[in-house]
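A favour, since you know our structure tokens better than I do. Go ahead and set the record down below.
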Amino acid sequence: MYAFTYERPAALADALKFAQAGARPLAGGQTLLASMKLRLAAPEQIVDLGAVPELRGICRDGDALVIGAMTRHCDVAESAEVRAAIPALAQLAGGIGDKQVRARGTIGGSVANNDPAADYPAALMALGATVHTTARAIAAADFFQGLFATALQEGELITSVRFPIPQKAAYVKFAQPASRFAMIGVFVAQTDAGARVAVTGGGNGVFRHAAMEQALDASFTPTALAGVPTDEEQMSGDLHASSAYRAHLVGVMAQRAVAQALA
């Protein structure tokens, strides 16, 4: 490691001042600290958001669920409110990493990092969530912009994520055994506006699968997805799986997710 200054404000206004002055936000540290150890990131100042109470918590707001940015994965997984409103979201959070990661990592940190194999982006895209920041509200479709890229501006902090409550939903992933990141993860949701299918782990970032959504609008059943193709050229290939295998997994995981949503 190397020298840097560390700030831990207790108010959002103070945290925002540090961020706007160029401090790097620390929202759990599951990616940032590892990157610093490898010298892939070298911030001169860090602002730890862990002591800001306004950024934590889960609440029902009408037909939506609002989760504070600094709410930990384990808290989402164990929340009775989440389990009652969107059980698929609780299950997703309970499958992130291992117990230690879930005890430190936060939804805001995961969303801001936008790892192409992360789980939460699939939930945001499939549920039509809105990311609220210190400056504005950003629809998930506009927020995620490719490999580790988001619509966040310098000095802008995520404060919460608002999830509309679907009629039915489920998330199923084929996990990479060591990291538990999604080799392919598929989140399906049946909403008032129609079916939504979001895929993570397959390429440069989360994306919606239009062909599968059309098939599910006609019949929200696993068999409706049989034979619906996924473009192999959209998929990434690496030492864990080829692009062809990932394309195949999309179909398998999507059918399992629909079956789970109907169970």
